[in-house]
Structures are given as structure tokens and as C-alpha cells.
Design goal:
By secondary structure, this protein is α+β, with helices and mostly antiparallel strands. It has one domain: Chloramphenicol acetyltransferase-like domain (Chloramphenicol Acetyltransferase), CATH 3.30.559. Helix content is 17%, strand content 37%. The protein has one helix at residues 72-87; strands spanning 6-8, 15-19, 33-39, 43-49, 52-58, 61-65. The chain has a 4-stranded mixed β-sheet with strand order 1-2-3-6, with helices on one face. A hairpin with a 6-residue loop joins strand 1 (6-8) and strand 2. The longest helix is centred in the C-terminal third of the chain and has 16 residues, at 72-87.
């Protein structure tokens, strides 16, 4: 990752801003940023795992993207990768 919470997109020229606090909505559209990922706080929630109900920590991530620069599939891959890395930080 680059400095100040930016990650360069591989196929597009732009940056993704990762934010753990409120960021004005206009930030995602300011070049060179093409997307904003907002991260909520970690809360304990009931979750079904392998058919069993348990309580686990859950983090909400929200993606806002400029669809002129990236499509929904790219955003879905970004969130899927973020999910995997947060669940397995040793892969970072």
C-alpha cells in the first residue's frame, strides 16, 4: 500500500482511500482517487458458522466508487480481498 491509506489499482490509474473515520462524500471523486472504502467499528454479532450459531467480531466495510473508472466487479474483488486479509492478517 502507498502512504496515507492509499492503494494503487492495477488496471486503472487511480487510488482507493481506506478510511476508518468519517470522510466527506466528495473525497472519493477527487483525482486521483476513484474509490472510498469506509470501515466501521468492530462489534460482536451473532453469526452462523458451519451450521452453528455463535458470537463473533464483525467489521462493516462500505465501498463507494467512481463507475467511470472502476466497475462493480472490481469493487467486489477489492472487498473480497480485504475480507480475506482481515481474517488472515498473516497473509499481509
Amino acid at each position: 500500500m502507498g502512504g496515507a491509506g492509499h492503494a494503487r489499482l492495477r488496471k486503472r490509474q487511480g487510488h482507493v482511500l481506506l478510511a476508518a473515520r468519517a470522510v466527506p462524500a466528495r473525497r472519493a471523486s477527487e483525482p486521483p482517487q476513484v474509490a472510498l472504502v469506509g470501515l466501521g467499528r468492530i462489534v460482536e454479532r451473532p453469526v452462523a458458522v458451519n451450521g452453528l450459531l455463535g458470537v463473533r467480531p464483525v467489521l462493516t466495510a462500505t465501498l463507494s466508487a467512481d463507475h467511470r473508472a472502476a466497475d462493480g466487479a472490481t469493487g467486489a474483488r477489492l472487498l473480497t480481498t480485504l475480507d480475506r486479509l482481515l481474517q488472515h492478517p498473516e497473509e499481509l
